[in-house]
From TrEMBL:
Organism: Nocardia puris
The encoding gene: corA
Enzymatic reactions: Mg(2+)(in) = Mg(2+)(out)
Domain of life of the organism encoding this protein: Bacteria
Pfam family, one: CorA
Gene3D superfamilies attached to this UniProt entry: CorA soluble domain-like (3.30.460.20), Magnesium transport protein CorA, transmembrane region (1.20.58.340)
Keywords: Cell membrane, Ion transport, Magnesium, Membrane, Transmembrane, Transmembrane helix, Transport
Name of this chain's protein: Magnesium transport protein CorA
Molecular-function GO term, any one: cobalt ion transmembrane transporter activity
This protein's GO CC annotations: plasma membrane
Family the entry assigns: Belongs to the CorA metal ion transporter (MIT) (TC 1.A.35) family.
Membrane topology: Multi-pass membrane protein
Localization per Swiss-Prot or TrEMBL: Cell membrane; Membrane
Length: 351
């Protein structure tokens, strides 16, 4: 018998994989440092290189899914463990070797313009993974910032560097990411200097929460930047890695820049810790000042309160109750004592 479905019970649509070409930003074949004309799929590009016996393929991907990455892995014979890491973002910077293939993970950072007195996100992070083999380089980017189109165009203008092979792509990407660290660190440094000026300016509105927010963002920046030190050192100093000597020299310069940025970030953390202490001390001083003012006004207010309390007890025999000048005399006493207290507190900077 035929089966019927009631209203609102539609048959689930079958999952249709997205073509790999949707994730590919660019794919080029490079021979002797020059890009071959024409458009290639990643399979056709790899076949062209292996038929020629020279050159390499550079495939750039953006946010590939598991199906798309599996297609790339099948074509370039990438290790499943590295492919799994490439699909999932938020990886820790690292360098792994699978036979003749290197797998480098880098964390990208981007500075978010913001109001220094507002609690908001300051640093955004993403990922770039680089696979390099004897005849290919595959870059995988996660996130909407730190694009690699400019890196590719700049590298294509330097054929002598591209002629060094896939290692030139690895160096160019690492150099681009570390340069972005330098730019972000400079912007964060400006924020810290502005925060310092605000904290040490009298009667400002800077709160400890905004300093803590900036400190948290510096911690996130440190977690993205500092772990890259070990992979860069391995690329520079491990001789058995499949990298040309000239590429190692370039990477040594990248490692030096990275060390400088890491030192700056450590200084940022220390400066913000000192700013927190200064802000808390400033709050404590302000609270003490407020308490002195409150205490001074309470002391002044206590005089009329005390006298009014005494004369409000309604006893029959009290001094000056029947005197015509008793009421103004009491007011003169209250005003004299209160004025004397105000002058005394003002001279002592309590008011």
């Amino acid at each position: 018998m035929p089966s019927f479905r009631g209203p609102g019970r539609a048959t689930p649509a079958a999952w249709v994989p997205v073509p790999t070409a949707r994730a590919i930003v660019d794919c080029g074949v490079y021979v002797d440092g020059e890009r071959l004309p024409g458009r290639f799929t990643h399979e056709a590009a790899l076949a062209e290189v292996r038929e020629r016996g020279s050159g390499f393929v550079w495939v750039g991907l953006h946010d590939p899914d598991e199906h798309q990455m599996a297609d790339i892995a099948h074509a370039f014979d990438l290790h499943p463990l590295a492919v799994e890491d490439a699909v999932h973002a938020k990886q820790r910077p690292k360098l792994e070797r699978y036979d003749d293939t290197l797998f480098l993970v880098l964390r990208t950072v981007s500075y978010v313009p913001h109001d220094i007195h507002a609690i908001s996100e300051i640093v955004e992070t993403g990922d770039i993974m680089v696979f390099t083999g004897p005849d290919f380089a595959v870059t995988v980017r996660h996130g909407e910032h730190t694009g690699l189109a400019g890196v590719r165009h700049e590298l294509e203008s330097k054929p002598e560097q591209l002629a060094l092979g896939p290692g030139a792509v690895l160096h160019a990407v690492a150099d681009h990411v570390v340069d972005s660290y330098v730019d972000v660190a400079g912007s964060v440094e400006n924020d810290i200097e502005e925060m310092e000026e605000a904290v040490f300016t009298p009667r400002n509105l800077t709160t400890v929460e905004t300093i803590y927010q900036l400190k948290r963002e510096v911690v996130e920046l440190r977690r993205a930047v500092n772990p890259l030190a070990l992979p860069l050192q391995l690329l520079v100093h491990k001789p058995d890695l499949p990298l040309p000597k000239e590429i190692r020299r370039y990477l040594r310069d990248v490692a030096d820049h990275h060390t400088t940025v890491a030192e700056h970030i450590a200084d940022f953390d220390e400066s913000l810790s000192e700013l927190v202490s200064a802000a808390l001390a400033k709050i404590s001083v302000q609270q003490n000042t407020d308490m002195r003012k409150i205490s001074a006004w309470v002391a002044i207010a206590a005089v009329p309160t005390m006298i009014a309390g005494i004369y409000g007890m309604n006893f029959e025999h009290m001094p000056e109750l029947s005197s015509p000048w008793g009421y103004p005399a009491v007011w003169m006493v209250i005003l004299t004592i209160c004025t004397g207290l105000y002058v005394t507190f003002h001279r002592n900077n309590w008011l």
